[in-house]
Amino acid sequence: MDSNASAPTFPLNAWYATYDVELRRELMLRTICNKKVVMYHRADGTPVVLEDACCHRLLPLSLGRLEGDDVVCGYHGLVFNPSGRCMSMPSQETLNPSACVRSYPVVERHRFIWIWPGDPALADQAKVPDIHWNDDPHWAGDGEVIHVKCDYRLVIDNLMDLTHETFVHGISLGNLEVAEAPFDVTHNDETFTVTHWMHGVPPPPFWAEQLGKPGEVDRWQIIRFEAPSTVVIDVGVAPAGTGAREGGRSQGVTGHALNTITPETGTSCHY
Predict the structure, then answer these.
(1) Is residue 80 classed as helix, strand or coil in its secondary structure?
(2) Partners of 238 in the beta sheet?
(3) Do residues 259 and 230 make contact, with C-beta atoms less than 8 angstroms apart?
(4) pLDDT digits (tens, 9 = 90+) for 20-60
(5) What is the pLDDT of residues 170-190, one digit of tens each?
(6) Is 187 helix (H, G, I), strand (E, B) or coil?
(7) Distance CA 197, CA 200 (A)
(8) Reported pTM
């Protein structure tokens, strides 16, 4: 039997995220799609992502140190610049031009650092998922990073089917209408959207508190998946019959739940 037959595979030609609060002026090890990388900020705040293996003896560079904007290997002192090129070898005057480590395309946008683990020639910044609410001054909010011990697709499954709110989040977000109301599904080659409207329903405790008005509400959950692993959920409530479905949300409250999942291995991910 082929020992690699059950090895997990991931879409590599895609952008995967690290939350900006995770990255500092120090070396950080991260595994993305089974690839070990070392990440850090330059002095000017620019993110750097390199293969976590010195080209000499494959010692993880994350075990070395940051010297200025360069990484110094902790085994024999080879120095690599942010593009992965070896700039210094102790006791050697002539540098082999092939002495380098892989540098990954990286973009910092909307409080996320996006890494492209696939073919760098295909790294299109226009394909970075749009999560602009995360640093829009007209919106307030924050988030966290959760290390989840499961296949990243199970997190996507959880987010795309919110009927579980009725049973898992019954004291906050859930009520019977979430599980029973009909929904519409649309898709194209890269996105998949589930639109879920509940008209004239009692608000669950969380939304009743947010709205601060008595009576039934029109409630919506518009869940948009963008391949391979970003889910943005447009959610909210408005007093019943005030035109929220037609675009008039001014009498209600609305929010966006921003989710992006980075595969680590076949059984773990960063959510």
Answers:
(1) strand
(2) 218
(3) yes
(4) 999 999 999 999 999 999 999 999 999 999 999 999 999 99
(5) 999 999 999 999 999 999 988
(6) strand
(7) 10
(8) 0.90
Which amino acid, 189?
D
Tokens of 209: 């508190």
Q: Which two tokens stand for residue 271?
A: 């959510």
Is the distance from CB of 60 to CB of 68 less than 8 angstroms?
no
Amino acid found at 255: G
* Alpha-carbon torsion, ordered 78, 22, 13, 2, to 10 deg: 80
- Is residue 192 within 8 A of residue 202, CB to CB? The reply is no
Q: What is the DSSP letter of 242?
A: S
Could you tell me the two tokens for 20? 């900006």
Q: What length is written for the chain?
A: 271
Residue pair 259/225 in contact by the 8 Å Cβ criterion: no
Instruction: Compute the distance between CA of residue 76 and CA of residue 109 in angstroms, rounded to an integer.
Output: 36
CB 9 within 8 Å of CB 228: no
* Residue 166 DSSP class: H
Torsion on CA atoms 234, 235, 241, 242, rounded to nearest 10:
-70
Q: Which residue has the tokens 């002495």?
A: 99
Which helix (H) or strand (E) is 152 found in, with range? helix 152-160
Strand partners, 198: 219
Is the C-alpha dihedral spanning 127, 128, 132, 133 positive or negative? positive
What does the DSSP 8-state code read for residue 104? -
Residue with tokens 């031009």: 97
Please give the radius of gyration of the chain, using alpha carbons only, rounded to the nearest integer: 23
